[in-house]
Structure formats: structure tokens, C-alpha cells
Amino acid sequence: MNGVTPCIGQDAAWQEWLSAMDSERMHHAWLLSGAKGLGKRAFARAAAAELVREAGSIQPDPTSHPDIYILEHLPANDDEAKKKADGKPYQTKRNITIDQIRQMQHKLTTRPTLGSRRAIIIDPADDLEKNAVNALLKSLEEPPVGTYFLLVTHQPGRLLPTVRSRCRVLRFAALGADELDAAIRRDMPEADADARAAAIAASRGSPGVALSFVEHDLGGIHRLMMQILQQGDPDFHLRGALAGEMGARPKRDRQLAALELARSVLVAELPDAPRARQMKIIEAHSTLTTLSMQAPVYNFDAGLLIMEIGGLLASAAMPRETAR
């Protein structure tokens, strides 16, 4: 049995999983619960591989193992499926469908192929269609012998209470700043100090999110956001610099990342702020949250969006007498 954790910072979760496997009555359904980017996907696949491993035999890769069945977002259409087959980026369907659940349930009518155990991974279970959740519930209530479910969830509250009640929860911890910095240095050694600081500030303890922020090169944007929060921006100078740092034609993903960064720096400011400023921070954060929900749908002008972000940060800035 492999005692090495498959994802950084999740040693406790991995040891809990291994201990459960050693027990006489292992629970048949698990919720892998935590924020995005904490390594739940890699963990689920490694956990499933340990579960179905047969001593003395060579095991296939988890993505092709006949006793590991993975339900995830399918390509949106035939053209996107071809992109996936060619190894190119592709768009997916919004939900995991009831047809996918039914195909999985049909598979459960047969015995495991290579051993006595089978693992079903649903990633993420948050995105199951309503009818798919109801269908899954039947399998969770009466699982075939030797079948184990691993439900990856970023927001367990979105699942039905009847699903949650049938699962043992395995919680994934947020990483500390030092662990995040080590992860960035390991996977993206070219990242400078500003880029790492921005990524750590925006990640809320998630190495996956932190690495994504480094890819979007938000170090300069983070520095300007912090200046606005500390100094205000009465002459719009910093907001203009912020727009220049964002660029005239930024990709949509970079705009969304900047929105998330702005929300994160506000959250970090909240605990130590006096009550009057806390209310301003909360109001600014609420508006940014609305913008974050609208931005993927509406085609906002990039320049106006970043100016709006800067304005909201300025509205929550430290009072000038305190800033001095």
C-alpha cells in the first residue's frame, strides 16, 4: 500500500483513507470535500487505484483501469469530442447527465474485472443533473458488494441531504502560505516574488488556484490593487495604471482571475478593519461577486471592467488619516 500522499498538503486525508481501507468495514461512499484546486481529483484517482489494487499483479493506469469508472463532464458536442481526442482544449457540457449515471449502473450489474473491488469516481458531484442525483441515490442506497463511490465536491451543500447522509466525508485542508509558495516554486520556478504573492493572496489556500493565477501573470495587478486599498485613488491615477497592467485585449480567463483576486484582497482586509470600513469592504465584495457571476455570460468591455474593479477597491480603501 502506498503511504505517500498523492497531493501536497493532504497527508491527513490520505492517512484517513488508508486506515479506512485497512478496517474490516470500510464505508461504501465517500465525499471528498473542499475548495477547488486542493488536489481532490488527483486524490480520488490515487485512492481508487489503491482500492482496486491486487497484490502481485500489474495495475493499469487509473484512467484506463477496467474497475475504475470515472464520471466527469463530457465534451459539449461532436466537434469538441474530436478536439479532446486530438489532445486539444475543448468545451464541456454544463452537467454530468442522467445517461452517464445509467451507463454506470449498467456496468454495476457485472462483476469487477481484475479483482474483487470497483471504484466509481464522480467529479464533480456538484454538477450532477437533478435527475442524475436521484438516480445515483438508488445506487448509494443499495451498492453492489465490492463497489465504492468517491464523490468529489467543491460545494457539498449543493448535494441532496439524502446523498450526503449516505457518505463519509473526507475533508481537504487549505494550505498555508509557505506550502503554497513551495508548490509554486516547484511547479512554476520561473514565477517571480510579485507573481507568487498575488497567487498566494488570491488562492485562499488552494495550490491549483494559485498556479492558475501565476499563469495569468497577476503580480503587477495585485501590487496596484493593494496600493489602491491602502492609499485610495482620488485622482484615478492608480486605476489608469491598473487598466494599463491588464492590457487592451486581455483574455476572458485573465479578467475573471482579476475579479477573483480583487475579492480575495478584500477578504484579507476585512478582519483588521474598523467596523465602518468593514461595511464598505462587504459592499464592495458583494458587487464584485455579482460581477464575477455576470462576467462569464456578458461580454464586458475589458477597460471598463478593470476600472470598475479599481473603483470598488477605492471605495473600500483605508481612511486617508489612517493611511498616513
Question: What does this entry look like structurally?
Answer:
- By secondary structure, the protein is of the alpha/beta class.
- The protein has 2 domains: 161 residues, 3-Layer(aba) Sandwich (Rossmann fold); 108 residues.
- The protein is 52% helix and 8% strand.
- The protein has 15 helices and 5 strands.
- It has a 5-stranded parallel sheet, sandwiched between helices.
- β3, α5 and β4 form a beta-alpha-beta unit.
- α10 packs antiparallel against α11 and α12 runs antiparallel to α13.
- The longest helix has 20 residues.
- The radius of gyration is 23 Å and the shape is elongated.
- The termini are far apart.
- The model has no long low-confidence stretch (mean pLDDT 89).
CATH topology of the largest domain: Rossmann fold
How many separate helices?
15
Please name the CATH architecture of the largest domain.
Answer: 3-Layer(aba) Sandwich
For the secondary structure, the number of strands is: 5
Structural class: alpha/beta
What percent strand?
5-15%
Rg over CA atoms: 23 Å
- The biggest beta sheet, please? 5 strands, parallel
Q: State the order of secondary-structure elements, H for helix, E for strand.
A: HEHEHHEHEHEHHHHHHHHH
Structurally, the number of domains stands at 2
Mean model confidence by pLDDT: 89
Quaternary structure state of the chains depicted:
single chain
Which ranges are low-confidence, i.e. pLDDT below 50, for 5 or more consecutive residues? none
Question: What level of helicity do the residues show?
Answer: 40-55%
Q: What is the terminal separation in angstroms?
A: 59 Å
Q: How are the strands of the biggest sheet laid out side by side?
A: 2-3-4-1-5
Task: Quickly name the level 1 CATH class of the largest domain.
Answer: Alpha Beta
Q: Give the CATH H-level superfamily of the largest domain.
A: P-loop containing nucleotide triphosphate hydrolases
What best-fitting shape do the alpha-carbon axes yield? elongated
